Amino acid sequence: MAVNASVAVFGSAALAVEYMDSLLPENPLQAPFKNAWNYMLDNYTKFQIATWGSLIVHEALYFLFSLPGFLFQFLPFMKKYKIQKDKPETFKGQWKCFKVLVFNHFCIQLPLICGTYYFTEYFNIPYGWQEMPRWYMILARCFGCAVIEDTWHYFLHRLLHHKKIYKYIHKVHHEFQCSGYDIPLNPLHLIPFYTGSRHHDFHHMNFIGNYASTFTWWDSIFGTDAQYNAYNEKMKSRKKME
């Protein structure tokens, strides 16, 4: 009964979204995107698209979104948003971080990305434009992937902090003790269960707790955010006394 009710709810929600989508004006960028996509399919193999194409998109997006955080240190008006103001960035630390990133991206992630082609072939995932899911389905699937990633990240991250294996793998990550800035206008703050920079920064400051990457629920369920919550209450009390 409960399963049938859930299916009915999701079905009704899907119909409502489809109806709202039908009311939206046609996307003017759809035609150029379609032409670019078809050009890619006509000029590159599936293997090239799934591997090198995925790698290029991955690297471009990663460094594009990381660039503002790197530039903030050179902008005086951004210093007030730095979380751990007593731990400035150093060229030596950032150069080491860059070298670790390059190694991880090309020696670990690239082989995994190469497996994308065989994954899509095994599950017969289409590449054609006509089989492309609608925008709301893409958003739903991205959210689902984020939930899956956050789940395995939490438990694997917590395992990597075990005293018997911490120094062999995860210790190098904690050589970088501050995770950056908390920007007030960040739209992700609108998501009530999103971790955010302060959540992960406390993990680097405290070394234990706050193991999740994206959402806060696993830390809440297992109580690994207790010290973080106590710290926040302490900071609030201190501000009231000032």
From TrEMBL:
Taxonomy, superkingdom: Eukaryota
Spans traversing the lipid bilayer: 60-78, 98-120, 135-156
Keywords: Lipid biosynthesis, Lipid metabolism, Membrane, Monooxygenase, Oxidoreductase, Transmembrane, Transmembrane helix
UniProt key word Lipid biosynthesis: yes
Keyword Oxidoreductase: yes
Gene Ontology molecular-function annotations: monooxygenase activity
Name of the protein in question: Methylsterol monooxygenase 1
The organism of origin for this protein: Dipodomys ordii
